[in-house]
Amino acid sequence: MTYSKKQFSKDLKQEIKKGFDVSRIAQWAYMLSIDRHRELPPDLDKFIQKVAVMDEGEEFEFSEDELIRFADELEAEDSK
Fold it and tell me: Which residues have C-beta within 8 Å of that of residue 40, sequence separation ≥ 6?
């Protein structure tokens, strides 16, 4: 079964609700990309990697609001 943008958006929002911690969310996204690599369409993997690299420096970080908006945009894009 293919992992969708809508599902990633839902899961990402759940992770944010656990508490906004850039390192924890980045690690979660990295592990998700490894655990589900066979289920990920290339375009979705690209979006997951944007979250996974947040730990690599301030220039890659999303604020909490930006990350929620990013998740909302992915969900809306998947609904088209």
Answer: 2, 3, 33, 48
**pLDDT tens-digit readout, 5-43:** 999 999 999 999 999 999 999 999 999 999 998 889 989
Residue 35's domain comprises 5-78
- Judge if pTM exceeds 0.70: yes
Number of domains in the chain: 1
Range 2-17 burial, b when 16+ CB lie within 10 A, else e: ebbbebbbeebeebbe
